[in-house]
Write a structure and sequence with these properties.
This protein has helices at about 1-15, 15-35, 40-95, 110-125, 140-150; strands at about 100, 105-110. It is mainly alpha-helical and about 160 residues long. The protein folds into two domains: about 10-90; about 95-130, no CATH class. Strands 1-2 form a two-stranded antiparallel sheet. A hairpin with a 5-residue loop joins strand 1 (about 100) and strand 2. The chain starts with a helix and ends in a 16-residue tail after the last helix.
Length: about 160
């Protein structure tokens, strides 16, 4: 399909600017003839036909220029997009850690090795597994719990003193 389209383009549209110049000159000559003989019907018909062909070719030239502008704009946009993503990738790559020294001072390279060292470091820094509240409220045995909930007479209050009978 591509080959026939190229042939059609080469045969019909390769010399659009030349065709436009030819028809402009031809139209100009016919219009000069019409000025010398304004009532000649054959000159009017030739002028109308030549003008229509000139308008058609001019429309094709404008369409071709628009297509070329679109192609240029797309290519320019692709270059800008390519540049933007290259810069974004560069910034992302700058934030990666490729090499690191471990606790012994040995330089370690590679994402997996560096990841392992960082994981071990933070595990060591954070310590063992944490149970929320375990260090604040120690667990009591049942006998201690019962003793804590009973009112005591030492406090100056009798058990069940404020409760209705």
């Amino acid at each position: 399909m591509q080959h026939p389209l190229r042939k059609l383009n080469r045969d019909k549209f390769a010399d659009l600017h030349e065709q436009q110049a030819r028809f402009r000159d031809k139209l100009s000559k016919i219009q000069q003839q019409m000025l010398s003989d304004p009532h000649n019907e054959s000159h009017k018909a030739q002028e109308r036909e030549c003008r229509e062909q000139y308008i058609e070719i001019t429309t094709s030239v404008i369409s071709l220029v628009q297509q070329q502008c679109k192609v240029d704009r797309i290519q320019y946009g692709d270059e800008c997009t390519r540049y933007f993503f290259a810069r974004a990738k560069g910034r992302k790559m700058a934030s990666y850690i490729y090499a690191l020294q471990d606790e012994t001072g040995t330089k370690v390279e590679g994402f997996d090795s560096v990841g392992t060292i960082l994981l071990d470091y933070y595990k060591k820094m954070l310590g063992k597994q944490f149970i929320p509240g375990s260090h604040i409220i120690p667990e009591r045995e049942n006998s201690e719990r019962l003793h804590m909930s009973r009112p005591r007479e030492k406090d100056g209050k009798k058990p069940h003193a404020g409760l209705p009978k």
